[in-house]
């Protein structure tokens, strides 16, 4: 299949999203959103019943066959062919124009990203920037990262779409962009960040990613990796200006209501590096909004203590 130009990627994505909504190939769910603060960093919390209804397994009830949604992407979700990847829409978005970069050939989500993965991802980020828009990319890898599919894929959210529903007067920006500032913002979990040059090569992108991953590996295991494999859970956040990586210790945490009764597991994926949390029930949403100390509890639970990391984000 011939590759396609993505120089007008924002238009391609919006047109594909609108068409898929009309044909029913995707189901978009509106959300409620509130802005919470942690040490001056804005986090948006979104509530959508769609997260509870979304299929939790890619295995049919009466079959042992594993369905790979990226092996042969449905035409109604398809956006564009790249040399080694396909661009497809997320089938169950709660943020408009959520799309995915998936390898054409099956590769493991738990393996290290390769140069062509990061090069293709940055091509998408660059296309949005050159059209006067911003894009946030995230990657989930490992059992505690929020990953749901074994086929390697990176996900993208247009920043303007991430701002949808936020009331006027409320301030929010992609958190990853703030995590390279000096002094580095304090979060209750370890993270590593790096500012990218204006036009990084694929080699530089990959070298940066490997350095951040190796730092995270040392936090988890206490030593540097001895081979080009990964045995940690982590999230990667990427814009055309920064790369951020955080090792994960847990999916999330059970939170309680005012009476101390469990009301649900708040589990986070790589959107946390964009300053975004998605919850599945109105009870969870209300609990977080009414008691912002619960946000601190969730953020502490998902990662490793930042005390192991020096202020410059390096060990």
Automatic annotation (TrEMBL):
MF terms in GO: ATP binding; ATP:ADP adenylyltransferase activity
Family matches, as Pfam families: Ap4A_phos_N (PF19327), ATP_transf (PF09830)
Residue span(s) of domain ATP adenylyltransferase C-terminal: 185-305
InterPro entries: Ap4A_phos1/2, Ap4A_phos1/2-like, Ap4A_phos1/2_N, ATP_adenylylTrfase_C, HIT-like_sf
Boundaries of every Ap4A phosphorylase 1/2 N-terminal domain copy: 9-163
Single biological process term from Gene Ontology: nucleotide metabolic process
Protein name, as recorded: Diadenosine 5
């Amino acid at each position: 299949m011939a590759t396609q130009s993505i120089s007008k990627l924002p238009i391609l994505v919006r047109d594909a999203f609108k068409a898929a909504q009309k044909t029913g190939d995707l189901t978009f769910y509106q959300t409620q959103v509130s802005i919470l603060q942690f040490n001056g960093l804005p986090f948006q919390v979104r509530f959508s019943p769609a997260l509870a209804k979304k299929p939790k397994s890619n295995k049919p009830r009466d079959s042992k066959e594993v369905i790979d949604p990226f092996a042969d992407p449905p035409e109604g979700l398809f956006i564009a062919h790249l040399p080694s990847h396909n661009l497809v829409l997320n089938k169950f978005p709660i943020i408009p124009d959520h799309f995915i970069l998936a390898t054409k050939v099956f590769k493991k989500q738990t393996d290290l990203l390769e140069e062509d993965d990061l090069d293709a991802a940055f091509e998408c980020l660059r296309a949005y920037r050159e059209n006067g828009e911003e894009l946030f990319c995230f990657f989930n890898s490992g059992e505690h990262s929020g990953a749901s599919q074994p086929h390697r894929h990176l996900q993208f959210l247009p920043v303007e779409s991430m701002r949808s529903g936020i009331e006027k007067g409320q301030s929010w920006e992609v958190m990853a962009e703030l995590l390279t500032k000096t002094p580095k913002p304090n979060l209750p979990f370890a993270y590593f960040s790096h500012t990218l040059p204006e036009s990084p090569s694929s080699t530089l992108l990959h070298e940066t990613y490997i350095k951040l991953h190796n730092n995270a590996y040392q936090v988890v295991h206490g030593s540097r990796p001895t081979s080009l494999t990964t045995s940690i859970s982590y999230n990667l956040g990427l814009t055309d200006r920064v790369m951020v990586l955080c090792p994960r210790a847990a999916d999330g945490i059970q939170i309680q209501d005012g009476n101390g009764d469990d009301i649900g597991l708040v589990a986070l994926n790589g959107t946390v590096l964009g300053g975004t949390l998605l919850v599945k029930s109105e009870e969870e949403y209300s609990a977080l909004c009414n008691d912002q100390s619960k946000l601190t509890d969730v953020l502490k639970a998902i990662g490793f203590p930042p005390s192991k990391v020096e202020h410059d984000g390096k060990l």
